[in-house]
Amino acid sequence: MKIRAAVLEAFGEPLVVQDVELAPPKAGEVLVKIKSCGVCHTDMYTASGADPSGYCDCVLGHEGAGIVEEVGAGVTSVRPGDHVVTLFSPECGECVNCRSGKTNICLAIREQQNRGYLPDGTSRLSRAKGPLRHFMGTSTFAEYTVMPEIALAKVNPEADFDAICLLACGATTGIAAALWKAEVEAGSSVAVFGAGMVGLGAVAGAKLRGAEKIMVVDMSDERLELAKQFGATHTIKAGDESVQQVLDQTDGFGADYTFEATGLVGVMGQAVEAARMGWGLCTILGVAGRGEKLEVVPRFLITGRKVQGGSFGGAKGRTHVPQLVEMYLRGELDLDGFVSHRITLDEVNKGFDLMHHQDGIRSVIQFA
Question: Is residue 149 located within the same domain as residue 24?
């Protein structure tokens, strides 16, 4: 079938919206009509060429939500008409990682997904010049996409697509990191570095867990004000004194939990330092640039601080995303508040521009 999609043809150049061909789903695959798609920093990061694992030509986009149109042979967990959230982080339930219960990083399709292909090593996307690769196994900057069954979360059809598409990446990364990865305790202190989509998600998650003090560090006065709407109790202007200000708010010992959501290695170092001596836990959520390294003073670790990463916030997509949708429907999560701009597919590069200028939190592409 012929669809409209936004193609990355060259790093550092605008995406080109054009007609491409999409082949039908094979065994274990699903055709999804995309209804809404967030424009995520990861898309812009890859398009810039900074991502060491990036590739082109490909159809970008990974923060999508839509409706199942067709299923391939053997698909049992979804059927036509189901509402789904796309998952760059699948959950097969059968690989050694899924069975371990220790991680959300599923291995079932990882090798081919990292190369830009579906599980059988081929693409469903093409144009006259030849095949196009799939981005993060999703390619949701398109009217339709074909994805593996294990990379789709079936969700309550009452939820608004514009809101729940954010759970495909940014919102879940922050919220789940606080809920399930760090397991923030009630009455604890939290410091979040970065008040973008991921950081604000961590704020919302910390609030849900009953944190008593939630400090947010950012350079933008506008975003710091917005953080208060999601649960921040204290705001700190980012700078050289950020760590000291966190220490001042926590009797000099540091926050019980810190979250880094900027992708800047210098800020990651601050998040480690701001964690409480003795038991502070720092969760790194941002993605650093090509070749960058995090430097940690060993003394911070020797004195009891711990550092962990949190891909997708530690969420198991098919298990946790439907739970987050239900929290949204119950009014416990303000996903609507994250949506700052609604644009069309033809305006996808505008979404990047808005992000570059820190205009709002998330632009959402709406499809008919």
Answer: yes
